Amino acid sequence: MEPKSKVNLTIDGKEVTAEEGMTILEAAQQTGIHIPTLCHHPALSSWGGCRMCVVAVEGVPRLVASCAMPVRSGMVVVTHNEKIVESRRTVLEFIFAERNHNCMFCPKSGDCELQQLAYDLQMDHLTVSQAFASFPVDVTNEYMGIDHNRCILCGRCVRACAELAGNHVLAFQNRGPRALVGLDLNETLAASSCAGCGICLQVCPTGAIFNRHRTHYAVKGHAKEWHSIDSHCPLCGLLCPTQAVVANNVLLKVEGRLLDAGQRPDRGQLCAKGRFEVLRDPADRLRLPFVRTASGQWQEASWENALDEVAAKMNFLRDTHGGQALFGIISARVSNEVLLSFRDLLIKGWSAETLDTFDGAHYRAVLAMSQEIGNHFREAAWQQLPEADFVIICGTDLCHHQPLLMSLLRRSVLENNTRVAIVGPTDSRNALAGFNLPATNDDLPAVIDGIWEAAVQSANATLNPSGKAKRARRMTTKPSGKVHPRKGRGQDVSREIPAEMVRQFLAAKQPLVIAGEALLAGQTAHGLSSLAKLAQLKSQDSQGRLLILKSNGNSAGAWKLGIAAQKSVGGRERLQGGIVVLEGEAATGTAAWTDRADLDFLAVISPYVTPHLRAKAHVLIPRPSWLEEAGTYTAMDGHEAARVEKVLQAPAGIRDTWQTLLALAERAGFHPPAKTLEALTRKVEAELNPGPEVRHQQNSATEGREIHD
Amino acid sequence: MSFLDLDETLVDVLSKVQLTVSPITDFKDYDFPEVDVGIVEGGIGNTEHKEIAEKLRKHCRILVAWGDCAVFGGINTLRNGLSKDEVLRYGFIETESTVNGVMPIHAELPALLDKVLPLHEVVPVDVFLPGCPPAPEVIAYGLTEILEGRLPVLPADMIHFD
């Protein structure tokens, strides 16, 4: 890229050098000159609507909005004088007078840009009369509400919804003093096409869009007690950069790092899970270790006693029955450091032959696919999505499972005319798809086979133009011989595959195929192979074309660290004792392991306790939740990793999971070389990124920057 | 209460002022003496408020709007979206706990104004001390400035609306 030419101008008597195309506001900010703003947000396009940022430009008869006025060579700008301040204060007073901006009963007081401007401009009363108009309040969404009485019509939310989320739900409706920000055609939050991501809440400068879970936390200067921590969200494997705001060990809000998102195509957004669901009060916390007595009663135990008990039972079972009687199952939502400590404890400490994650079956589906297509499978990076010109989504409801990818997709459809085909379950918000091939999970593999065959035929026909297929407008295919329709169905599941869809896919320069969770479940897993082959038709370059959505936030890390078992385990073997590490999984997802009737001993390490766990376990050991311990996580596509920081303090006395696992390892007779979290992180990095060159600086463990594969 | 939070500053202030009329003196007629400083807290919501404000204005040199309600109208302005009749009917008849409610409309009772207004929309005001309540340092600053012969203008870091 050519460097932009420089522009010299004067701001408040200072010689300033700016780049061509910059606004006066940007030029002033980079020089450290403060200009108040309100409708302007650095992550959004300029609007110039509020006139708070007005400045005087020599030779221009009226004040100009500095956020919208580009710099010009030789410009002489004044940002503060009596006339300018008077103009700003008048504007501010009109805004205050227009609606209900009484701070004392506003949930945002103390954390409000409008209020701060009033303080800065010493607005100690209003010289204009208030309008006292009444507007509706929308509290139909669980996490956020819209109080139009507090809205200043700055339009940040409208721009954020369109420019960042690509959702275009918000728009101005009505005119003049009755204008308000409406959803769709005058819908409520709940009934509209709002995805609930909360980007509007993050950019709202007032209490108009407010967080229903945390209100009134900033009143009376309490915002001074806040501190913020830059971290990453590990919930879905996209590792979105976050800023968590905490006061007195309460998580007040999680925001996307809109100004610090680097090259991320999502530009620092978050989805509802990462922004809001984390604010929910956690389930029943396990605060102390418990050991079940001989009579079956639960008894509080010291940490030492609980660890001794686990080690004694597991050591005994190992020594009497050998490693084949022991198992360790771990959540794929925990950090790489915990995964690695767990793996070493189980294998090196107890010689356990059964080690797996709760989503191990999904790993084996991917493994089977990889073997079937010849082991040169290379997964696409999720960041390829915005460049993709044709996207096939198979077996997932992207809106629900990967809201952020959905946002990227919406934007590329609107901005780049990306074509989309959806195969499998759909919902109304998937209306952006040019091709919809609804299919039940049972039908899915046959439909994918159909697409693949049609693509192969079409590709061959293009190579041999004399073939008939070239003229065929519609192509009907049957599932290939490899597909075995499920028992009991019997009927032919062949379908019409739109020829135009196949043609566009084959013609695409950067196609991307996304495989969802329906293709990772046992019965339909062979659909994944056909999909991989379809993707391979377009993988001439080294870039992968198939992205596999993982079921848990750190599935990719668990798979790469070899935790997930390569062969299905635990069905037939006689297991006698095991240890399970949880991160808030529901009982239905863990029952296959915790409910085994053949167990003499089960230890559970979990942040939460459920009646189910109380009924099944023999020892319960608490651990911090993911917000309460630091660690690295691997992105969904396995291409990079990021550090998740400790944001909250765990309840008193609870040890970090890696410390618990280290203590158990020592009791099992295995002495891990890594005795600090930093050493563990280095070990994880060395395993995940083998290679002669040292890829990462040592300090990456403590600085929280992204680690690129 | 915020006034009492002044702690020892309160002693300084009281040693320099003479309180002539206050809610504590339980005045029923408004025969104000001529005073230097009049302080009003609360928005102007009924005819009695308006009358007191107007009389006080006549008899004091410096009138202070004290607190968010006097400065902006405050929480009382929540009723401004409703008509007087709706407000009274809801407050005195329709509330769940009310049985055989009666509307408080009588020649001897003050009548509601159409809207609750900040003090300065009824009479001219010299000093504004916002805050809900005004912080002790705001009160101390305001009173000290007045005692030293200046009209206080709150610096930016002292203004608070909550």
Number of helices of chain A: 20
Largest sheet of chain A: 7 strands, mixed
Query: Which spans of chain B of ≥5 residues are poorly predicted at pLDDT below 50?
Result: none
Q: Oligomer, anyone?
A: heterodimer
Report on this model:
The complex is a heterodimer of chains A (about 700) and B (about 160). Chain A is of the alpha/beta class and about 700 residues long. Chain A is about 30% helix and about 20% strand. In chain A, the strands form eight sheets. Chain A has a seven-stranded mixed β-sheet with strand order 15-14-27-26-25-16-17. In chain A, strands 2-1-5-3-4 form a five-stranded mixed β-sheet, with helices on both faces. Chain A has a five-stranded parallel β-sheet with strand order 20-19-18-23-24, covered by helices on one side. Chain A is globular, with a radius of gyration of 29 Å. Chain B is of the alpha/beta class and about 160 residues long. In chain B, about 30% of the residues lie in helices and about 15% in strands. Chain B has helices at about 10-15, 45-60, 70, 85-95, 135-145; strands at about 35-40, 45, 60-65, 110-115, 125-130. Chain B is globular. The interface of A and B includes residues 125, 133, 219 and 221 of A.
